[in-house]
Amino acid sequence: MGNEIVIRVEGLSKKYILGQRAGSAGGLRHAIEDAVAAPFRLAKRLVSGAGNSPSTPEEMEFWALQDVSFDVRRGEVVGIIGRNGAGKSTLLKVLSRITEPTKGRIGLKGRVASLLEVGTGFHPELSGRENVYLNGAVLGMRQAEVRQKFDEIVAFAGVEKFLDTPVKRYSSGMYVRLAFAVAAHLEPEILIVDEVLAVGDSEFQKKCLDKMREVTDGGRTVLFVSHNLSAVAALCGRAIYLKAGKVMMTGESGPVIARYQSDVAHQEAEPVSNPAFRSGSGTHRIHEIRATSKDFRPRGPLEFVATIRRHAPETPFHFSMHFRDEWDVAVFAINSEYLEGLSLKPGDQEVTVRIATPWLPPGDYRADAYLHCNGIIDHWPDACRFRVGADVAVQGYSSASAKNAGKVLADFKMEILPAGGKP
Amino acid sequence: MHSTPTSNPPVEDEDFDLWIEAGHAEKHYWLDLWRYRELFVILAWRDVAVRYKQTVAGTAWALVQPFLSMVIMTLIFGRVAGLPSIGNAPYAIMVFAALLPWQFFSNALSASGQSVVSNRDMISKVYFPRIIVPTASVLVSFVDFLVSLLILAAMMAWYQFPPGWNLLALPAFMFLAAVSALGAGLVLTALTVQYRDFRFLVPFIVQFGMFVSPVGYNSAVIVEKLGSELSWLYYVYCLNPLVFVIEGFRWCVLGGEFRLLESPMLVSLAVSFLLLAAGIAYFRKTERSFADVI
Fold first, then answer.
1. What interface predicted TM-score (ipTM) does this complex get?
2. Is-contact B159 B70, C-beta < 8 A?
3. I need a surface site. Which of A272, A373, A419, B15 has the fewest CB within 10 A?
């Protein structure tokens, strides 16, 4: 019973067709030709049925998944890792039946719930109480089930006092907590989770991880996508490493993570500098992030300037940067949300970031940048790379000892007390 | 080094509850829909609840709009153009009995056309039968419609125009109105997802539709101009599914001669059901790719 297969993926492929981007080529003549031809094309597509319309030369094919196969057994917790654009999210979307595969098939056994985002369907005008019922229904819970778990959900989120306040008046922390609380009380046999832990404060992230552990200890089958490799290592027995839509390696999570890390360290950057290809709602986009120096010194400060452009009117939002070292291990993150009362107003702007600590050992670093407001507005993986030079010894660390000391260097003092304890 | 794929043990298809495959028609489509029946009600409830938050007059808005339209149409068609009413019914009641299903239809059409696009976040993040979204917005319009029935009752009291036994047939015509609205709504929803052009087309359809439907006048006026009921032009006129629904409503409310079983009228009735069947079929064909194109 214990090793019964509950998810079987066979030769799964998913093709997307990227339409020609507006303004990329052609000019006015093309635009007019296009406009004239459009009704005919439209009629042709209507007749042939949408979805399987033949691709015209101006459309580009893109295989997000290619011939992916794997099995998951009951009670297994499987991490899916890979760089951005490797097909992780597409895989989850196909598994959760949000989008259809182009080839191949997936067999599922048992009730499946997917959590690709917290707070899906939350409506800002509705109260916390109303949103719990709404969100529960969207995630596939019965109303009776929500009613029964209601007190538990509210207690988990810690929003008892604000149950009848519209969630638009919630702080973003409260909002995320309530949203996660609903999701955490889903009781599916198979749970599919995307990087939902990327936003939110660290205390909340810990709570989420604990809850995830509880879920996995309960013998449920979980598929878990994350950039947080230590979370994958801690939670998942097995891992699947995807690269450019293909399975590179599957197996115990330790070796798979090691293989991924060594690939990342030897790989050239492929930054998604074109915002049109990035994920997020896209109401604002980061157009540039510049490190103010080519070579920072270990003792900092690190300084960056981010240029943000508005693409659609929106509410205030937050800006965060997540720093990783050359082994792709998260070192630290900064978030405008943590600065009391600082949120970015809608509109074009430049944000300067000055980071006094931590002191970083010499090496190559990269930062992912996010704009977010309850959900992700812009996610720019590998937005900025910089180097911390080895030239200056800090606090007595030599450049060699600094490199081996750990992820960060410490600003420390020691005091020698006379023997006997009290001065 | 490990390599993939590992040798997969053979499995039987029946071992799994669900196979997800390309172009594979959903075996449990209707069962799935039944499982999500609560979501359907909740989405409708959400739209109703949200609409009247932060409005001063609240639900009264559902009453004001049809009432004012009725006043204007009574003035223009009844007084200025001097068109006849049915039997001895006041022109205002005759117009209002038609405005109710018409407004339900046009509101449902506009709302459902937008519904999937405006619930984009949900569609791209979670699975549920997509057809719930436009259907829920038709339900919302249906709630408005029930509310505006109150005005009809008030008007009948005011004109001292008591209804007959025909009124008992009203639910059947309400059902038919919902069939037409849902059918047209599903087609437009699926089209709007793919081609946003339809966003601009819907207001036009609604405006145009009001004049080709017997709302401000009754279809007897058309028959009279055409000379005979069996004129082919009258058949063309009756391709509009609302002709049957609206005249049915009038018959329930105003009484009078029962003329709904004449052949042009039956064309209109048939179109309602054809539209629903086509709507469901087209929606099901396209919904699988909604998340990719939205």
1. 0.83
2. no
3. A419
